[in-house]
Every structure is written in C-alpha cells, then in structure tokens.
Design brief:
Layout: H1 5-17, H2 21-34, H3 38-46, H4 48-57, H5 61-88, H6 103-118, E1 136-140, H7 147-153, H8 158-164, E2 178-182, E3 186-190, H9 197-204, H10 208-214, E4 227-231, H11 237-243, E5 248-249, E6 255-258, E7 261-264, E8 272-275, E9 278-281, E10 287-289, E11 294-302, E12 306-312, E13 317-327, E14 334-335, E15 340-344, E16 354-361, E17 364-366, E18 372-373
Parallel strand pairs: 5-18
Antiparallel strand pairs: 1-2, 3-4, 6-9, 7-8, 9-16, 10-15, 11-12, 11-14, 12-13, 13-15, 13-16, 16-17
Helix pairs in contact: 2-3, 2-4, 7-8
Length: 374
C-alpha cells in the first residue's frame, strides 16, 4: 500500500500542534537549565532532582509549593503559641506554683481555702479564723427601731441582737432602751458543767479555732459560768421564734374574753382565782388548730375542762385545748402546726362556747399572749 504524501504532512502538523508529554518535560528542562549560569548548566541539566522540579514547574507547580509553605508556617506558629500558653498557665489556679514542700506554698493553700469556703451559701458559712477579738458596744434604741432594723443596720443577724440582750420578747423594744451590739455575728454562750471547747464547737458546728480566736483564749482552761461568744452561731429555732412571738399561732379564730392571770370567778363573781390560760370565744363547732407542731399526749374529759386534749412540743413546751365539743385526733398522733385537732364546744365548767387555751414550759404555765403570732 502506498502512502499519500499529504497524510504524512498532516500527521507532522498535528504532532507540532500537540506535543507529547515527553516533549513538554524536555522543553521545561531546557528552559530551567538555560536560566542557570553557563558553568553549571550541564551538571544541572543532568541532575535528576532538577528534572523532577522542571517537570512540575508547568501546570501550577509554583502555586502548590507556595501553599505548602504557608500551611507549614501556620502550623509552626500555632505550635509555638500553644507551647507558650501551656508554660504560662501550667497550674489549675493559672499561676506558677512554688515547690509543694515549701512553706510559702502551704501558706498559699491555706489562704485560698478561705475564698473557697466563702463561695458557698450567703450567711451560713463560718470563717476558720476571726480577724479581731469579740467585743460589745452600746446602742440606744431610736423611735421606729425594731430588732430586724437594728440588726440590718449593723450587718448582723437578729439572733445576734436577741441573744446578746437576752430578749424574751423582741416586740417589747422601747425608745431609749440601751442594748448591746456585738462587733461580729454570732451569739453568746454560758459554759455549763461538763463543757469543753471541743464539745461547744461541735454543738454549734463552729470550728474551735474561731471560738478560741474570737475570745482571745490562749490555753484550754475553761470554767463553769464563763461567757463565750460563738462567732457565726445561731439561736435554736424554737428560741428565736419564741422571742419573735412566732412560736405559736392562734388555735382558733375567736375573740379574747379572758386573759392570763388573776381574775374574778366567772360563776360567783366574787372570789379571785388565777387563770393559767386565755379564753377565746368562738362559734360552736368552729375548728380548733394545733398551735405548734407536736404529738398528742392526752385526750380526756373531766368536770372542769370538759373534753380536752394536750399536745407535747419540742423544747419542753405543751399546749392544752379545753371545753371542746369533739376531738379529731387520738393519743400518740403527730400533728402539724395549723392542723385541725378538734372543734369549739361548751363542755365542762363553761359559760358559753369558747376555747380554753394554755401554754406550759417545762410544766409551768406561761402567758400565751406573749408568744402567739399575730
């Protein structure tokens, strides 16, 4: 078969327009070699590494090399920044700490404990140590003053004011009265037989160091009758409510017809008798409620009190409800303050439907009106 001369010319023309990959690489190699000084052209042209680089120069090679360099530089910079901050903040407290066996380190730990404990509840935290020794100052009650107002103005709890002045009834403050103000929050305590500093600290849940520091105590000697100030301590709940007149609520919605103390006999009108309770007049069948949380100790009936019941409470208190029409509880039952325990009646020696209400403290009758919440 004979080839036409035009076919060969066309093929040669196509090869010139579309050089092969081998031809492209050779051209790039030659261009790279020409850019070098004459005395190193030949060695570089024969160098395999140069041939490899010449092969990638075309088609974005320079861009790829530049991008790889930038990524590498960013990586090195990031590693450097991370290492710097790791060295700077190498402790949990973000500070360089001294040797763990050093005295300075131990003092820092002890000092920081105060901040950690102070981050708890608002008023229940007690400092491990006190900055000053306890002392009292005098304050003259002004017009419009109350225990809560005085306590707030001196940044103290009401417990501190009431206990420091042994107030039996916080509502009995009068203008011109002089009361004692402690220079720190807490309450005084009189040392009793068998007491020790450890025992007192445990009973009030106060660190013994706080008691020793506040009272400037240098040794372990303790004497019965000594008065200690217990920083951060609170009164018993019953004692505080009693002083605030909130320990008991009115057991019935009625009208006071007879108070606590001496009175004429309501039946004879002549002979004076001591009335160890108060009388509250109410409608027959009106609900009678427990004045305080407690336990039913007695349910009974007699000629004087008619149908009655007695509740026993904490802190040595008892309450009696007499002349009842009916009882809604049984002996041994626990009741909550405000819970219905019976109904107003006219049983026993009575002049009409009413409630005979008595309060006892350690077996002795006390005036209910001094402790009832309005």
């Amino acid at each position: 078969m004979k080839y036409h001369p035009g076919y060969i010319d066309v093929k040669q023309h196509i090869e010139r327009r579309k050089p092969s990959r081998h031809t492209q690489n050779a051209s790039a190699l030659k261009n790279a070699a020409r850019q070098q000084p004459r005395f190193i052209r030949q060695p570089l042209a024969q160098n395999a590494e140069l041939r490899r680089k010449a092969a990638v120069l075309d088609g974005g090679g320079r861009s790829r090399i530049s991008s790889q360099f930038i990524v590498a530089a960013i990586g090195v910079l990031g590693a450097g920044i991370f290492a710097y901050f790791t060295l700077l903040f190498q402790s949990d407290e973000f500070m360089i700490r001294p040797d763990a066996d050093s005295r300075v380190f131990n003092e820092i730990l002890e000092y920081s404990k105060g901040f950690e404990s102070a981050a708890g509840t608002e008023t229940d935290d007690i400092p491990l140590t006190t900055a000053e020794t306890f002392s009292w100052s005098n304050y003259t009650v002004q017009r419009g003053d109350s225990v809560s107002k005085i306590a707030a103005s001196h940044s103290l709890s009401m417990d501190a004011i009431i206990a420091s002045n042994d107030l039996k009834n916080a509502r009995n403050l009068h203008t011109g009265d002089i009361i004692r103000i402690p220079n720190m929050d807490g309450i005084p305590y009189t040392v009793a037989k068998g007491d020790s500093y450890q025992k007192i600290a445990a009973s009030f849940n106060v660190p013994i160091e706080a008691i020793l520091d506040a009272n400037d105590i240098q040794d372990e000697n303790i004497s019965i009758g000594d008065i200690l100030f217990i920083p951060g301590a609170k009164m018993k709940s019953e004692d505080l409510k009693l002083a605030m007149g909130e320990l008991f609520i009115y057991p019935v919605n009625g009208r006071l017809t007879s108070g606590f103390g001496w009175r004429k006999d309501p039946f004879t009108g002549g002979e004076r008798r001591f009335h160890s309770a108060i009388d509250l007049s109410a409608n027959l069948g009106a609900p009678v409620k427990a004045a305080m949380d407690g336990k039913v100790s007695t349910v009974g009936f007699n000629a004087v009190f008619g149908r009655y019941l007695i509740l026993t409470h904490s802190a040595g208190y008892q309450t009696m409800y007499a002349h009842l029409n009916s009882c809604a509880v049984i002996e041994g039952q626990k009741v909550k303050q405000g819970e219905k325990i019976g109904e107003v009646g006219n049983t026993g020696r009575s002049t009409g439907p009413h409630l005979h209400f008595a309060v006892y403290k350690n077996g002795r009758a006390i005036n209910p009106l001094e402790h009832l919440k309005f």
